[in-house]
Amino acid sequence: MVTLVDHLGILHSFETVPKRIVSLVPSQTELLYDLGLEESIVGITKFCVHPFHFKSTKKVIGGTKKVHFEKIRLLQPDIIIANKEENTREIVEELSKICPVWVTDIITIEDNLKMISDFGILFNKRTEAQKWIDKINFALTNFKQFVRNKSKQEVAYFIWANPYMVAGNNTFINEMLKLNNFHNIYENREERYPEVIIQKMRIQVDPDLVLLSSEPFPFNDEHAFELGRFTHHAKIVFVDGEMFSWFGSRLIKSFEYFKKLHQNIA
């Protein structure tokens, strides 16, 4: 018997270790794979692109915001792994009629480490989970040393155009920005992903850096030029959105990516 509380405070009890997993979150799919659970994963979303071969070996059950309930039901899962930001409450409630839905809510690195620990307990992968936790903590300490003497920069992190939207407060992206000694100029907005008027950008807080994420919107040079017109001197940089927004085991790669990013913007 395994009894554990998820990030929403829901108590889950399992008589045996869940053997059939449906994952509705790309970064969590990658983590489950890295914990050695490839054989247990039976369903994924169309956005679960890592590892690459899952697209041909696992059942695709829709996206993160629109899932195919009947396909999931036919997979006879023991557990469905969801996320508060990625999946809607309505989806979680409907899927709960099929089997237990474990919901994560990841904003900080501490949240991320707890998720890894929880998965280790849930799926009897405690040793593998602890190894990942140790690796992340070691890499985090190393990166903090690297960034310690970097000067703070004012940053805007764009995730969408038409309308333009940015990452705000209470997001994992914002935590990654703070880790890099970047101050998010939209951190004080109430919305987590506010729509912004770019013409007012330099009037409010003129950024040193404008980061254009590779996901979920495909920014191009025209967007970079348009945004550059409304700053005084900001560097416009295209960045890998996975490195800023994917939690789980991806953090190991993120730290190395961030080091290269700092070297490129120096």
Biggest β-sheet: strands ordered side by side in the sheet: 5-4-3-6-7
Uncertain ranges: none
Largest sheet: 5 strands, parallel
H and E order: EEEHEHEHEHEHHEEHEHEHEHH
Please tell me what the overall shape is. globular
Distance between the termini: 53 Å
CATH architecture of the largest domain: 3-Layer(aba) Sandwich
Structural class of the helix and strand makeup? Answer: alpha/beta
Task: Walk me through this protein's architecture.
With 266 residues, the protein is of the alpha/beta class. The chain is built from eleven helices and twelve strands. The strands form three sheets. It has a five-stranded parallel beta sheet with strand order 5-4-3-6-7, sandwiched between helices. Strands 8, 9, 10, 11 and 12 form a five-stranded mixed beta sheet that branches. Helix 4 (89-95) links the parallel strand 6 and strand 7. The longest helix is centred in the middle third of the chain and has 22 residues, at 126-147. The radius of gyration is 19 Å and the shape is globular.
